[in-house]
Amino acid sequence: MSQDESCDRALSRRALLGRLALAAPLTSSILAKARVNVPRALDDGGPIARSVADEFRLVPLPTRIYKSVDASREQTESWILWLLVESDRQRDVAASALRITLRSKGQVVQATTVTGAGLDAIVLRLGLTPTRADGSAAPPSTVWHLRLRVRCSVPIASAVDEMLVDLDMTSGAATVRASGAFPVEDYHQRTALVFPFNGPAIITQAGITNGGHTNRSGQFALDVVGLSKTYSIYLPDIPDSRSDSYAGWGRTLLAPAAGAIVRARNDRPDQPDPEKSDPKYYAPEYPGGGDPGNHLVIDHGNGEFSMLAHFQAGSMLVTLGNHVEQGQPLGKLGSSGDTVTPHVHYQLQSGPDHANSDGLPCRFTNVSASRLVRGVFFDAR
Questions:
Q1: Whole-prediction pTM value?
Q2: What letter would DSSP give residue 207?
Q3: What pLDDT shows up at residue 241?
Q4: What are the CA-CA distances from residue 28 to residues 79, 221, 371 (Å)?
Q5: Mind listing the pLDDT tens digit for each residue in 79-138?
Q6: Strands (E), 211-343
Q7: C-beta of residue 341 within 8 angstroms of C-beta of residue 199
Q8: Strand residue runs (E) in 22-126
């Protein structure tokens, strides 16, 4: 699997809390606006020619930065993103220093400079084709030079609301800079959601800051396995090699909120071995993994879209264009696509296309757990 892709890797009987990830290939990004500053020196970097520095832009992926409360007792929150270095012509550049300044209401609360091996570890030169937010082609002159993986963790009490970034680079004999200022936000969910099945469950894969899904639209996604009334993953007296040995297999999946079906696919088989993700059963457009299998997307009409994935083969009860009400049956929990272990993948996203949308944090009115992270049990009613 390439570094540009993430795909379902789930728990088995031998690894109950293993990786369960649905993710679209990370080969699309955004031409989002970032403030280009008058160049400022890093601590001792000296002046940089504005005519050169302003040719470079920093593009965030996802396009908006939302904080996640960390699954610890440290009262911290984190966010993770890609920063793409973009310009309008091809040239060789190399990152030399990265400065990240975090602010709260205009006051600096943290500043970090990364150089040397620390910077090398987060810079990638993988070739990507520039695209717009919706996945369409960017202007022909657009070039993405570098990608940087940025993670920030801060005390919740610091109330960070802005991240300033200055990236110094060398281009031939010149020193150049790309700069940007990006809001860092708490997300305020608009839709009152219910979890999309009833009964006991365990989260086996969660969001990006919890060691889970890493793709753009899946940053806050959940993979959830249904359990028996006694909170067992398996049913008695059925061989492990059968999907129906799992308590959640075939459980009715429900609409988390009212809306219109804007994406629907119902032609994919289930994985025959519930403990193996066999590429032979992926859809042709997902040769490297990340196949959501039978899935649908519901437009809630307010900029929020629910995606449910891995429906059981042939079980979907709705089609494209249907309107659904909250709690309406949609189909059955299965194991279609790139997945190990029957489960439902749920994510809230900013648009209808999971490959070209931002992930959104989500909560459910019928789940009392304070944090939706890997290993959490709950009983949705």
A1: 0.85
A2: -
A3: 82
A4: 19, 18, 30
A5: 999 999 999 999 899 999 999 999 999 999 999 999 999 999 999 986 778 988 788 899
A6: 222-226, 252-254, 259-265, 294-299, 305-311, 323-324, 329-332
A7: no
A8: 57-61, 65-66, 68-69, 76-87, 94-104, 107-114, 123-124
Show Cβ contacts of residue 312 under 8 Å, excluding neighbours closer than 6 positions. 249, 250, 270, 294, 331, 332, 333, 334, 335, 336, 342
C-alpha span between 330 and 17 (Å, rounded): 27
Where b means 16+ CB within 10 Å and e means fewer, 123-136 reads beeeebebbbbeee
pLDDT score for 54: 58
- Retrieve residue 379's tokens: 């009983």
Give the pLDDT of residue 125: 84
What pLDDT score was predicted for residue 260? 98
Which position has the token pair 């032609």?
A: 267
Residues 6+ apart with CB under 8 A from 40: 166, 179
CB 202 within 8 A of CB 224: yes
Q: Contact, 222 vs 193, CB < 8 A?
A: no
Q: Each residue of 138-162: b (16+ CB within 10 Å) or e?
A: beeebbbbbbbebebbbeeeeebbb
Helical segments of the chain, H only: 50-53, 116-120
Please tell me the predicted confidence (pLDDT) of residue 128.
78
Tally of CA atoms within 13 A in the half-sphere of 349 that contains its CB: 29
CA separation (Å) from 334 to 131, 271, 339? 33, 9, 10
Inter-CA distances, 131 with 27, 33, 144, 167, 171, Å: 9, 14, 10, 22, 24
What confidence score (pLDDT) does residue 239 get? Answer: 84
Q: Low-confidence residues of the chain, pLDDT below 70?
A: 1-54, 126
Q: Which amino acid is at 348?
A: L
